[in-house]
Amino acid sequence: MTTPLAIDVTDLTKRFGERTVVDHVSVKVKTGEIMGFLGPNGSGKTTTIRMLCGLLVPDEGRGTCLGLDVLAQSDAIKRQVGYMTQKFSFYEDLTIEENLSFVARIYDLDRRAQRVAETLERLGLANRRNQLAGSLSGGWKQRLALAACIMHEPRLLLLDEPTAGVDPKARRDFWDQIHLLAAEGMTVLVSTHYMDEAERCHRIAYIAYGKLLTEGTVDEVVAAAGLTTFALSGPGMGALARLLEGAPGVDQVAPFGTVLHVSGRDGAALKATLDSVVNGTPGVHISADAPSLEDVFILLMGGAQDNFS
Ligand SMILES: Nc1ncnc2c1ncn2[C@@H]1O[C@H](COP(=O)(O)OP(=O)(O)OP(=O)(O)O)[C@@H](O)[C@H]1O
């Protein structure tokens, strides 16, 4: 049996005044899939996500979200969406449980006490139910925010840069939780700038200047970029980086700690440049390396800027 599509949209376009902010974007997301949206600041990720779930009406395009028409049935879609924005707010002098009860009342949910109890349990907040929200660390605050937006049992969860400013352990816990929700059948759309978050998504889409440049699993996106990458290490990496910038076959030079990643789409030209430039530099070690997602995104961003300017 094939998994049904939670999202199936074609040519979504949004203009603000003269500017086309999202330009004919087509996306399919399966039910229970975690889809990450990446791209430079202001590239249209949030606008795309908001159109996908009925929060914003597209100027062009068509399609369905949760089996409902994104143009004609946006109100019905919205009711089945949980949206965790970057800036979530609580009453700091209310406990976790009181905050959730308050949210349940605002949204006029039925079975309020039961929903609050179930959500506390589901997100591992039950032991802390009496703790004041104002005294929580960043990671627990974020978990409370997640609890607040899944209490009405949405089928689609939108996370806008969910772990900005949260420490690595809390980020990992948060992502474990997101995977549990997805395994229960919730579809999740995430916008992020973090490579480690991207790598936790089932699929990713890269958007720049309103255009969808690539999408797929991390491995597919890396393979589709067709990059050859070499890792250089040894003395004088700074000087070597300056020599290699813009040389034939070199599309990008990026330091990763003490190692220099040098990448290009023309593998033979890149190898020839490295042979001639690095030859004669004593102590420099070169090895072929797998391109990282970050290498690919930096390249895509550079290419998009060239096309845009
Ligand atoms: N309601 C609006 N009216 C006018 N312009 C808008 C509106 N909403 C967004 N924009 C503009 O559209 C562009 C895309 O914004 P969007 O928030 O979708 O980008 P983003 O990729 O999510 O960015 P970031 O990574 O910075 O959050 C930006 O230039 C933004 O200023």
Give a verbal description of the structure:
It comes from Oleomonas cavernae. The protein is globular and about 75 Å long. A 6-stranded mixed sheet has the order 6-7-8-3-9-10, with helices on both faces. The chain has a 4-stranded antiparallel sheet with strand order 2-1-4-5. Strand 9 and strand 10 form a beta hairpin. With 309 residues, it is of the alpha/beta class. It is built from 11 helices and 14 strands. The protein folds into 2 domains: 217 residues, Rossmann fold (3-Layer(aba) Sandwich); 64 residues, 2-Layer Sandwich (Alpha-Beta Plaits). The model has no long low-confidence stretch (mean pLDDT 91). 37% of the residues are buried. Adenosine-5'-triphosphate (ATP) binds next to helix 1. Adenosine-5'-triphosphate binds next to helix 1.
The span between the termini is 46 Å
The radius of gyration over CA amounts to 23 Å
Bound molecules: adenosine-5'-triphosphate
Strand content: 25-35%
**CATH class category name of the largest domain:** Alpha Beta
By CATH's scheme, which homologous superfamily of the largest domain applies?
P-loop containing nucleotide triphosphate hydrolases
Overall pLDDT? 91
Number of domains: 2
Number of helices: 11
Order of helices and strands: EEEHEEHEHHHEHEHEEHEHEEHEH
Low-confidence runs: none
CATH topology of the largest domain: Rossmann fold
Main sheet properties: 6 strands, mixed
The residue fraction in helices comes out at 25-40%
